[in-house]
Amino acid sequence: MGFDTVIQVLDSTLRLSTPLLLACLAGLFSERSGIFDIGLEAKMLVAAFFSAAVAYTTGSVWIGLLAGIAASLVFAGIHGLASITFRGNQLISGVALNFLASGMTVLIAQSWFKQGGRTPSLIGGARFEPIDLPFAGSVAGVPIVGPIYSDLLSGHSVLVYVALLAVPATWWLLFRTRFGLRLRAVGENPAAVDTAGVSVVGLRYAAVGIAGVLCGIAGAYLATGLQAGFVKEMTAGRGYIALAALIFAKWRPWHALGACWLFGLLQALALRTDVVEAIFPFRMPVQLLDSMPYILTVVILAGFVGKAIPPRAGGQPYVKER
Amino acid sequence: MTLMRSILGAAAGLALTAGAVMADPAIIFDLGGKFDKSFNESAFTGAQRWAEETGGKFREIEMQSEAQREQALRRLAESGSNPIVMTGFAFGNVLEQVAPDYPDTDFVIIDAVVDLPNVRSVVFSEQEGSYLVGMMAAEASKTGTVGFIGGMDIPLIRKFACGYAQGVMAVNPDANVIVNMTGTTPAAWNDPVKGSELTQAQISQGADVIYAAAGGTGVGVLQAAADANILSIGVDSNQNHMHPGKVLTSMVKRVDNAVEKAFKDGPGMDSGMMVMGLSNGGVAYALDEYNDSLIKPEWKASVDAAAAKIASGELTVHDYMSDNTCPVINF
Fold first, then answer.
1. Interchain CB distance below 8 Å, B223 and A273
2. Which of A228, A268, A274 shows the shortest C-beta gap to B223?
3. What is the b/e burial string over A154-172, where b = at least 16 CB atoms within 10 angstroms of the residue's CB?
4. Number of domains in chain A
5. What is the pTM of this model?
6. What is the tens place of the pLDDT at every residue in A28-67?
7. What is the pLDDT of residues A283-293, one digit of tens each?
8. Quick check: B219 and A229 CB within 8 A?
9. Of B41, B194, B243, B330, which to mutate for an interface test with A (greatest number of A Cβ within 10 Å)?
10. ipTM > 0.90?
11. Per CATH, which fold does B126-252+296-323 belong to?
């Protein structure tokens, strides 16, 4: 197994972890404000559909991206309405949205494009093309650093870099701004925030809205960056793996990056049976690699490796007076 | 239990006599969905063709979840549809339970064998068609490494892989065949993102022709192959048009013919096993205006010669499902 192979696996890791990372950060905002979000999957799926459908219709991937974010925001709005304004059960609202998204996307796609719940293939400007970072061509010949820069870091679609930049941005927003302090406080002790004269409802809507935007980008990346069109159920459980990553990261942004990379690496390894055979002396079933994210999350939840303590007010609707 | 069964049977009998006047055929599409550009769509094409030719009507149901199978079957049988065609191996167990309750209804199951007097089991010799496209792949490959990407890891898909590998080895005994399965759950039929990542992984291992037998996941495989400017091979329906000049050929399974024939035969058809192979036009490789520039005449000649040999029985392609082993690759 050569250095090239390592670069290829890591390259694949970066692509596979991007939708997880965006969805994980979305969940982070939402849950830090005290709103559990099972519906990450739903938001990604509607965003994937609308970004592909609008990108195909208009021929512009950027308009498609905006449409995807808008669709995801509508779903975030419904979740907010159900769980913040009407104080419904957040898990049930999320599950309902998942069902709604999976049925609705196929239904609309079928009546819009008549291609059996998929969009036509996107071509040209309707897709995110890989972009080359500056000097990627000229440093490619340099040993070690060259391949890392020009093959691994360069040559991804712009949304991959957006996702990576979203990590420090999230950290800064949550831990270095007044808004972030209040947002975290509202997830721990909303009554205290309310006493201080800050709107609990407003903060929670803001958090759910940010989650909507991030899920929108994740969905658009799946349909217009990684793929060239929407296929039914194309998120294939990535929203749930993102939730697992969120627990694994114990609701912290930098750890979320690590968790998503780890889960992405496991997925990438599962694709390369030749590499797996080279690493492990015994025959490692790829199914085991596929289920590792869930196993690791259970281990963390069970408290074997530190304790994962969710935001204290998570899942409870805020009632001003009793 | 017996009382329940007899009541059910009586109810079914009543429903049958009531519905026998109309007796429209019905078709049930499996989870991939009616327009999967592949297996189910091919079945739909056959039903459609029958409807256009005869002016008849047929009923259809598309499965949305595993749990619906039995309910859908019973509902169609009770409403008097006859014959009832279902696409997909997954109906096998359910049909075994349902079919005896409706002895006057004819059932047709595609891709599985159910040994009951009122069931016709249509199975395809996918290994034969896959063998032919495997030969094509080996001819077209410059690197000597070709790939196979399956959907859900089930014996049927291994049968495709095994036939393909045998065809590749027949042309180039030193060839390397990389086999990957997308997953072990039905979600593996609809994960184009994973399909395209698998494609890129196989390309980086040197593959330059990749055969996808993976339902909706195959869309991602064909896309990634076209983006990387290598060749891919489609499956079930003719998928050559999806990326003109980039899809080498498609292994066509004439599910449409099987469905059309079942509808034509109508109630009272011959039951039992029906094997659709090269000899009776059940499987083939696709050649049309989108790929005729890719296939050299001498490749076509040698593949057609092999097809003739297989059809006449002179050459046999090992069927993975006959003994769950494959002579040329390890799973």
1. no
2. A228
3. bebbbbbebbbebbeebbe
4. 1
5. 0.84
6. 999 999 999 999 999 999 999 999 999 999 999 999 999 9
7. 778 788 888 88
8. yes
9. B194
10. no
11. Rossmann fold (3.40.50)
